[in-house]
């Protein structure tokens, strides 16, 4: 039996620790066992109840825009938003969305997407996440 040639496969790494790559990427958060508050960064204590026990939980991959701003700095304007993913607020960039007030609306349905941030000298690709208009 011949082993497949995997030399052409690109190694990918998530840009943030809470992005899980795969066929259907998703985000994970640290949920307080006491009050169910969710955080993407590691915590020693919950900011809401001061609990110190956390469980990693999968975050919904779709949601609605609850807040946004159109950022005019940089080479092109882009949309920075907060998306409510079934009760978990996610700060993100909206990808593939025209950055105009006519196209971005509070309450618009969006879904998780990933994209390449670039490669290092060894060909390892950094993968980031954002949200795009739901189909």
Q: How would you describe this structure to a colleague?
A:
This protein has strands spanning 12-14, 19-20, 26-32, 38-39, 54-59, 62-71, 78-85, 88-94, 109-119, 125-133. It has one domain (12-133). The relative contact order is 0.21. The protein is mainly beta and 135 residues long. The N and C termini lie far apart (43 Å). The chain has a 6-stranded mixed β-sheet, with no helix packed on it. Strands 2, 3, 4 and 5 form a 4-stranded antiparallel β-sheet that branches. It is built from no helices and 10 strands.
Task: Looking at this protein, list some descriptive labels.
135 residues; mainly beta; six-stranded mixed β-sheet; four-stranded antiparallel β-sheet; 10 strands; globular
Write the layout of secondary structure elements.
Elements: E1 12-14, E2 19-20, E3 26-32, E4 38-39, E5 54-59, E6 62-71, E7 78-85, E8 88-94, E9 109-119, E10 125-133
Parallel strand pairs: 1-10
Antiparallel strand pairs: 2-3, 3-4, 3-5, 6-7, 6-9, 7-8, 9-10
The figure for the number of domains is 1
Average of pLDDT: 92
Rg for CA atoms: 18 Å
**Content-based structural category:** mainly beta
Order of helices and strands: EEEEEEEEEE
User: What is the 3D shape?
Assistant: globular
How many beta-strand segments? 10
Q: Unreliable stretches, pLDDT < 50, 5 or more residues?
A: none
Residue fraction in strands: over 45%
The major β-sheet equals: 6 strands, mixed
Query: Alpha-carbon distance between the termini?
Result: 43 Å
Q: How helical, in percent, are the residues?
A: under 10%
Q: Which strand order spans the largest sheet, edge to edge or round the barrel?
A: 1-10-9-6-7-8
Q: Please report the number of helical segments.
A: 0
């Amino acid at each position: 039996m011949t082993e497949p040639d995997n030399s052409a496969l690109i190694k990918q790494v998530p840009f943030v620790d809470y992005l899980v790559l795969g066929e259907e990427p998703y985000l994970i958060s640290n949920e307080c066992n006491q009050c169910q508050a969710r955080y993407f960064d590691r915590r020693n204590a919950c900011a809401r109840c001061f609990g110190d026990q956390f469980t990693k939980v999968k975050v919904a991959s779709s949601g609605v825009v609850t807040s946004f701003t159109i950022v005019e700095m940089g080479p092109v304007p882009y949309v920075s938003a907060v998306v409510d993913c079934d009760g978990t607020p996610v700060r993100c960039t909206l990808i593939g969305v025209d950055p105009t007030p006519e196209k971005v609306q509070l309450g618009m349905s969006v879904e998780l997407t990933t994209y390449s941030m670039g490669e290092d000298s060894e060909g390892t690709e950094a993968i980031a996440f954002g949200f795009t208009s739901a189909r």
